[in-house]
Amino acid sequence: MGLFTLEHSKATYLADFAFYTTSVLILAIYLLAKDLHSQSLQITTYILVGLIGWTAIEYLFHRFILHGLQPFQNWHTEHHKRPSALICLPTALSATLIVTLVFLPALMLWDVSRACALTLGVLAGYLTYTIIHHATHHWHTNNLWLKKRKRWHAMHHHVEQNGYYGVTSSFWDIVFNSNH
Question: Phi/psi of residue 159, each to 5°?
């Protein structure tokens, strides 16, 4: 199992968490070090837009790519068949997608600080998603919020069930009526 496989070794799987945690910290430190006091509200807004935007990206990717487009649908079917297996998007692919589809377009539209802020929000959302998704399949908890997320995701994994695509949020499932 290498860096470009869907089923990861435990070390590669954990390295994904480390990579995204480090990336979030580096971007946050960079933005703090830039001393953007006069733009702090604007930078914070870009971070929040990225974070909220992540929930839409997660929903759309899960619903229309992982459940509708080959070969991604076959890959995701493996996760449904073996939900506790360490199956996830290879870090090299997810990082490339985020740089190509978030950072570079933002950099073409705005300056480096705004592009980094938007990307920080998306990365923080993606990291949150990976932690919550891992928790839904591997953690036993008494936390009521996480129990609710686990139930929601279990409904998604039900064999005859379409819907419940959101992992970090139910918002888009409710908006698009895919929560039944």
Answer: -55, -45
Q: Are 152 and 135 in contact (CB under 8 A)?
A: no
| CA-only gyration radius of the chain, Å | 17
Tally of structural domains, the chain: 1
How many Å apart are CA 157 and CA 116, to the nearest integer?
Answer: 35
DSSP state of 71: T
Closest residue by Cα to residue 165 from 84, 88, 70, 64: 64
Residue 54 · residue 46 · CB < 8 Å: no
Cα gap 31→122, rounded to integer Å: 15
How many C-beta neighbours within 10 Å does residue 72 have? 16
Name the pTM for this structure: 0.85
Supply the angle between the helices 10-33 and 112-138 in degrees, to the nearest 10.
150
**How confident is the model over 89-118, as pLDDT tens digits?**
777 888 999 999 999 999 999 999 999 999
Contact 66, 166 (CB under 8 A): no
Domain residues for the domain of 14 are 10-140
Is 95 inside any structural domain?
Answer: yes
